[in-house]
């Protein structure tokens, strides 16, 4: 059977497009001058919320509402991380895990500790790298 695309642009305010395979309708789409077409366009979007229970994310693409992006619609190449970046991420995760384990070895929850107080309550605590005000 022959697949054909038929375009009706006889009216300036509306364009209709139909894809037919023989006598079977495969796709129908239309665009009006008053309404912007979203379907089929490519947008730069920012993930605003991830919903694991829905296996999806909500994205802000600049429209009136957030878009819905199902995980199975994300191309597998998106997850390909360059080897150097992957190794850096793994090293960073290992370092953070080691620091967490060291902290957990030193401090136990709900146990008494003898501590030396270095500041009064009214004095600000300034972490390394912070500038004093």
UniProtKB/TrEMBL annotation:
Ranges of Basic and acidic residues composition bias in the record: 101-122
Record has Nuclease as a keyword: yes
An annotated GO cellular component: cytoplasm
Region (Disordered): 95-133
Molecular function via GO: RNA binding; RNA nuclease activity
Gene3D superfamilies given in the database record: Nucleic acid-binding proteins
Record key words, sorted: Hydrolase, Nuclease
Listed GO biological process terms: rRNA processing
Entry keyword Lipid biosynthesis: no
UniProt-recorded name of the protein: Uncharacterized protein
Native species: marine metagenome
Lineage: unclassified sequences, metagenomes, ecological metagenomes
């Amino acid at each position: 059977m022959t697949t054909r695309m038929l375009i009706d642009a006889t009216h300036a305010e509306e364009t209709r497009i139909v894809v037919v395979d023989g006598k079977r309708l495969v796709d129908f789409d239309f665009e009006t001058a008053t309404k912007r077409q979203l379907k089929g366009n490519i947008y730069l979007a920012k993930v605003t919320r991830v919903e694991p229970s829905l296996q999806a994310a909500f994205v802000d693409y600049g429209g009136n509402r957030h878009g819905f992006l199902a995980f199975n619609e994300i191309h597998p190449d998106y997850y390909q991380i360059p080897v150097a970046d992957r190794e850096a991420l793994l090293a960073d995760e290992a370092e953070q895990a080691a620091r967490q384990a060291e902290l957990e070895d030193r401090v136990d929850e709900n146990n008494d500790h003898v501590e030396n107080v270095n500041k009064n309550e009214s004095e600000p605590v300034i972490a390394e790298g912070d500038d004093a005000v």
